[in-house]
Write a structure and sequence with these properties.
alpha+beta, Beta-Lactamase, Heat Shock Protein 90, 5-stranded antiparallel sheet, 13 helices, binds adenosine-5'-diphosphate
Length: about 600
């Protein structure tokens, strides 16, 4: 595959080559067709002219032959011989001879028939006029006297011409006169006049004796011809001269053929050949152009394909590089993830240890405080026993009992925190659960002077949950509210619930001090508490949150606008109130919570 200029040059060379070949072939073809068309046309012209010549030669010879034989025949007729006698007074038989002459001329259609005495005196003639001119008459009589056929071409003035044949009449072996027959060429010339070609006869003097063109008659050939041109209608035009000799008379019969069909045949052959060559040249040029365009197209296609291939190769290379770097990145990320997982595990471990530490600190504090109190009460009781003050001893023992109860309660709470959630989750009536929870919560509330209001709208709502654990939730929330309201007069805890679509929204609100905004996010964390030592360990809300999550629900805390805390619980609503889950199916009793 060459460069573009190289290809263009090749195309130019091809075109030049094609042009040279085309020009050569065209020239050969045109000249050959011109020549062959000319030859054909000439042959045609010659053939037709030749035919005319042959026919007219025959016609003329026929006419002359007819008249040639007439004088010898007549001169041998006894009735005609008898006319050539003078009577005693020397008078000729003029009248009888004239009748015979007229009869013969009429029958033979001769121009004239004349009888003459040897001295040239006219015995008789049929039409008259010619003989009197006397031109060539002596020769005719002389030849007849010699016993030969006399002949002479005669011009009779104007364009009147004739040919005369003479034969001698002999009486008793002596020359008694001559019979002369004048040939009429009028009919011959009239027949020739129908032909478009010039037909004429020249005699030995090159004088035109007969012609179908009246202007030519009795003219010298040299005035009518200039080289190959002949005088036609006042000007010289090229003609082909076909000649045949009439030996009898020493004449030449000519037919002039018009060669113009040859020229026009040549011209039309030349134009047809030229046009054909031009057409062939144009076709060849079109084919060449097309093939050039196809070559250029193929070249462009190849170049495009190559470019595409290169592009694909480059892209593939770039893609493999990207792929490699991606795999590397994946590897790096995998390692990073691995490290992250390890770090997370370590963090969880650390958090667990921290929670354990936090819990241990809280528990040890919770247990150490009553233990220290128990020790001091026991020590005092021992001393009271030594002194015999038994009343104080029993008082101290009662206090010790109270502290042990508190420690047992704390232990139970911790136990419930560690317990796994039960599997019994189903439709439970919310009103029943709240009522049961309030049975447990009300004594504390009463003692603290806090009122509890349950919205009657709660009736009829059924939620997805566990009966005991949902009760724990409400007991815990109400207990926290009571704790918060301990310093408040007119403390009120309100419990209400409503259904919103597939959810039941339950709220527990109080009019206490509320929760600080900074603490809202932390109150559900285990061991978060704001209460003093011995009053709380901060796992109540954490348990509540776990329980609600177990029911696929959610809980959030917020500050009420008018003061106080508001806990909102979202639980799945159950459309048809289902059978409540029996208390026995729950792992822990409500009392364990308080
Ligand atoms: P505890 O009661 O042992 O402190 P909880 O997890 O039950 O643990 O409560 C965590 C903290 O949430 C409490 O210490 C208290 O500060 C806050 N809290 C809970 N309920 C209320 C409420 N109704 N009003 C004000 N603060 C509350």
């Amino acid at each position: 595959m060459g460069s573009r200029p190289a290809i263009e040059q090749r195309f130019r060379l091809n075109r030049t080559g094609l042009f040279v070949v085309w020009a050569l072939v065209s020239a050969l073809l045109v000249s050959w067709s011109v020549r062959s068309a000319g030859e054909r046309a000439l042959a045609d012209v010659m053939q037709k002219a030749g035919e005319t010549l042959a026919v007219q030669t025959e016609t003329l010879s026929g006419v002359l032959d007819k008249y040639r034989l007439l004088p010898p025949l007549l001169s041998r007729q006894s009735s005609i011989r008898a006319l050539f006698v003078r009577d005693a007074e020397g008078n000729a038989q003029t009248l009888a001879a004239r009748r015979v002459a007229e009869e013969i001329a009429g029958m033979s259609a001769a121009l004239d028939v004349a009888f003459l005495f040897p001295d040239g005196e006219v015995l008789a003639y049929a039409r008259g006029g010619f003989v009197t001119s006397g031109e060539g008459l002596e020769d005719l009589i002389e030849t007849a006297r010699q016993g030969r056929l006399g002949r002479a071409a005669l011009s009779l003035g104007g364009d009147a011409r004739t040919y005369a044949f003479s034969s001698g009449v002999r009486r008793d072996g002596k020359f008694a006169g001559a019979v002369i027959v004048y040939v009429d060429f009028y009919r011959v010339e009239a027949a020739w006049a129908l032909s478009a070609r010039r037909i004429f006869v020249t005699d030995s003097d090159e004088t035109v004796f007969l012609a179908n063109d009246p202007a030519w008659r009795l003219k010298q050939m040299q005035t009518l011809r200039e080289g190959g041109d002949f005088l036609i209608n006042g000007r010289f035009e090229p003609r082909i001269d076909l000649t045949r000799r009439l030996p009898l008379l020493g004449w030449d019969l000519h037919v002039l053929a018009d060669p113009s069909p040859v020229a026009s045949a040549r011209l039309s052959a030349a134009s047809i050949a030229t046009l054909s060559c031009l057409l062939a040249g144009i076709l060849a040029l079109i084919v060449l152009r097309r093939s050039e365009a196809a070559i250029v197209r193929a070249r462009t296609d190849r170049a495009t394909a190559l470019r595409l291939e290169r592009l694909v190769r480059d892209r593939t290379r770039a893609l493999s590089v990207t792929n490699r770097s991606l795999s590397h990145e994946v590897e790096v990320r995998r390692e990073a993830e691995e490290r992250l997982r390890k770090t997370q595990a370590e963090l969880v471990q650390t958090a667990k240890l921290a929670a354990l530490g936090q819990m241990s600190a809280a528990l040890s504090h919770e247990f150490n405080q009553p233990l220290a109190a128990i020790r001091s009460y026991a020590d005092n009781a021992t001393r009271f026993l030594e002194r015999g003050a038994t009343d104080q001893v029993s008082g101290n023992l009662a206090r010790i009992n109270g502290l042990v109860d508190r420690m047992a309660e704390l232990s139970r709470t911790l136990l419930s925190f560690s317990r796994k959630p039960g599997a019994s989750i189903g439709p439970v009536p919310l009103a029943t659960i709240v009522d049961e929870a309030m049975l447990l919560a009300r004594p504390r509330a009463r003692a603290a002077g806090v009122a509890i209001q349950v919205d009657p709208g709660i009736a009829g709502l059924t939620v997805k949950g566990g009966r005991i654990r949902l009760g724990q939730v409400f007991v815990n929330l109400v207990n926290n509210a009571i704790d918060a309201l301990s310093q408040t007069s007119n403390g009120l805890v309100e419990i209400s619930a409503r259904q919103e679509g597939d959810w039941v929204i339950a709220t527990v609100m109080d009019n206490g001090p509320g929760i600080e905004t900074g603490e809202l996010s932390r109150i559900f964390d285990p061991f978060f508490t704001t209460k003093g030592v011995g009053e709380g360990i901060g796992i109540g809300l954490s348990i509540v949150d776990n329980i609600i999550r177990d029911f696929d629900g959610s809980i959030r805390a917020e500050k009420r606008s008018g003061g106080g805390a508001c806990f909102t619980i979202c639980l799945h609503a159950v459309a048809e109130p289902g059978k409540a889950v029996s208390p026995a199916s729950e792992p822990a009793g409500l009392d364990q919570m308080v």
